[in-house]
Amino acid sequence: MRASETRLLAVDWGTTSLRAHRLAEGGAVLETRELPLGVARIAPGGPEGSARGFEKAFEEACGDWGRACPGVPVIACGMVGSAQGWREAAYLDVPASLDDLAGALTTVEAASGAAVHIVPGLIERGRLPGVMRGEETQIAGALASLGPVDMDDAVDADDPEPASVSDSATLVGLPGTHSKWVQVRGRRIVHFDTFMTGEVYEALCAHTLLGRTLRRAGGWDREAFDRGSQVARSPEGRAGVLSTIFSTRTLGLTGALSPEAQADYLSGLLIGHEVQALEELDRHALDGAGRILLAGNLALCRRYRRVLASAGHSAGVAIAEQAAERGLWRLARAARLIDAPAAGTRRRLRQALSRCGLLAILRGVQPREAREVGAALHAAGFRAIEVPLNSPEPLASIRLLRDALPADCAIGAGTVMTPAQVDEVRRAGGEFIVMPHSDASVIRAARAAGLEVAPGAATITEAIAALGAGADLVKMFPADQLGAATLAAWRAVLPAGTLVVPVGGITPSNLASFVAAGAAGFGLGSALYRPGRSPAEIAAAAATFVTAWRAAAGRGQ
Questions:
Q1: Model-level pTM?
Q2: SS (H, E, C) 515-551
Q3: pLDDT for 537-547, tens place per residue?
């Protein structure tokens, strides 16, 4: 598993099953697990017993992913947020925007320390209230497939439905146990209807007289299916579904339908009645929709699309695949979970320097040698490695180093000059940035991206300004020209606890004087690594520096 590729753990947690996804940038699915650990199957045993059950299920589904990718955000949708779930996420009232959903996440902390963010459901109040849990996330994913309507676009608070996305309505159909038909205008869910079609079909097949003669086969008898959907729209169909379903048995008794055909006939009949009812409830919902999206089980969506086509609604009907996964990604982005600093990640460089106060600067390193050089440095005791962005293909080297080395080794980028470069480093898996200057916009961008930041400073004035902008450490450069005495003078002025890392001209012989002056660590460049140097030579130089640092810092072997 390439840990650096993982950007989000997304869990679709329903009544009977749990589907966990490991997502890469853009919501691409890296890995999926499906377990029979739905909310209904987790032993109640009171609140505490239920909580333990959810903890155990979450650990089984995602525990190893979380350990391999510490700090990666987690988002979940579905019945896990119900009153019977892990933590209740209160319903939001319709109409509601997808941004409203993202802003109302409920958080529960797992035993591992992971914060699991749960998407709320929706409720439409009235004489006959409607509710949904999980489908709201599928809607977000289905809409993401449209392209032009981007949930990350800014929305004016006084105009929640910009003209660019609200002029035409979208109808989202969610076939399933309880089918939903959801009217969306722009980014707002304005109305939905529910049909228990799937559950009624299962009940009729398993627990009524109809089930005695029908037999469900693996294939799809389209002719029998079409016959059923056409009956729903025929004059006989006006008698209603309670009347027409009996024809499943009578057509079987008269030899018009085989046992296998009866099952598909009943399926077409029920779906046909559902679409017919939807037209009668609000003809404009279908005819006035600029587009119709279907999301859910692919085979079932194809059945619904066939019925819609036979009813004259074939234009603009599309099936949105992986809607739940896409929706979880989009809601996490809208909630800024992905871009927010993850717990513990903004101390990676400081933690690494506390173990070994040496930062390897691999200026000029090539991706083809990155793994071998990184392994040699780690074996020698280094726990922090920087790849300057003026190296050949630096982002590729950062990815390779992050994938190859253990989690106790912090990997970052140097010579970071702009906020855009900060985002590139984050996407590559970098955990900190080192700057040659103290540009406040870059410092702010690094903090917003969840990266530790060490700006460069040559004067005490620059150092104080960098700290004021949010720096985590200060890089003192060029150290050999400024000298240990300058560092001692800085320490008298800087806030207590400020970490200063001298860089430039540091050698095993002058390192001790800087430690005595208060250095928290050192950045080592050409004295440690330069292009063309063999891994064995790098390892020897690294061992010399580690020995010198341990002696100066009073660390044993």
A1: 0.60
A2: HHHCCCCEEECCCCCCCCCCHHHHHHHHHHHHHHHHH
A3: 999 999 999 99
